Amino acid sequence: MKSSRFWAWATFTVGALYFFVPLIATLEFSLRMRRGEYSFDAYRVVFGDDRFQATFTYSVVVAILTILLGVLVVVPTAYWIRLRMPHLRPVVEFITLLPLIIPAIVIVFGYIRMYGSSSPLPFLATARGTDALLIIGYATLALPYMYRAVDTGLRTIDVRTLTEAAQILGAGWTTIISRVILPNVLIAVLSGAFLSFAIVIGEFTMASLLNRPAFGPYLQNIGANRAYEPAALAVLAFAITWACMSVIQILSRFAPKSANQPR
C-alpha cells in the first residue's frame, strides 16, 4: 500500500515538474528584457503593439462566430440523431472524428483549390469571403469537441419526454430546440464553446495559408524576429488556454447527472 502510494506521488511529481519547469523558465525569461533586473517590459511592449491588438481582436471575433456556427450546426444535428436516428450515431461520430485525422493543411489546400478566384464559388476573391471560409474551417476543426460536448449534455436529459411535452403544448421544432433543448444542455454547449475558443486563438495553419490577420500567425512572426516578446506571448496564450479549461471544469460541476442514472 505504501509502495503504491509512493510511486503514485513520484509519478505525479515527475509529471508536474515536466509540465511546470518549462513554463516557469519561460515566465522567468519573459521578465528579463531589462538587463540586470526583472520587469514587465516585454508584456508592456506586447500590449502596446498595434498588431497584437488587431490580430487578437480579429481572432476573438472569428472565435465567437465559429462558436455560433458550431452551435447552429451541432445542436440540431445531435438532437435529431438522438431523437429519431440513433442508428446513425456511429456514422456521425466517425464523421466528426475526421478533423482529428485529416491535417489542417490538407483541408486548407482543398479550400484553396475549390474556392479560389477562378472557381465557381470564389470565396477567396474577397476578404469577407476568405473570413467566412476561415470560420467554416475553424468550425470543422472544433467539430469533434463541440459534438462530443453537446452529445454528452443530451445524455443527461430525457430528450424524448421533453420533446413530446413541448409538442403537446403546441411548440414547433425551432421552439423545441431553442427554448427547451438548448437551455437544458447550455453548460455542455459552453464547454464545447470554450474548447473551440482555445483552438481558434492559437490556430496557425489555416490563418497563415489563407493570409488572414489572426493571432496565430502573429505569434509565429514575433517568435521569428524577437527574443523576449515571444516568451511573454507564450505565457499569455497558455494563460488564455488554461482559463478556458478552468471555466469548463467549473461549468462541469453544475452539469446535471445523466438521465439514465438513478436519482
Automatic annotation (TrEMBL):
> Where is it localised?
Cell inner membrane; Cell membrane
ABC transmembrane type-1 domain location: 52-249
Give the transmembrane ranges. Answer: 7-25, 56-79, 91-112, 132-150, 185-210, 230-251
Assigned protein family: Belongs to the binding-protein-dependent transport system permease family.
Annotated source species: Mesorhizobium liriopis
The UniProt entry, under Pfam families, shows: BPD_transp_1 (PF00528)
What this protein is called in its record is: ABC transporter permease
> In what way does this protein cross or attach to the membrane?
Multi-pass membrane protein
Give the source's domain of life in one word.
Bacteria
Q: Which residues form a coiled coil?
A: none
Against InterPro entries, the record matches this protein to:
MetI-like, MetI-like_sf
What are the alphabetically sorted keywords of the record?
Answer: Cell inner membrane, Cell membrane, Membrane, Transmembrane, Transmembrane helix, Transport
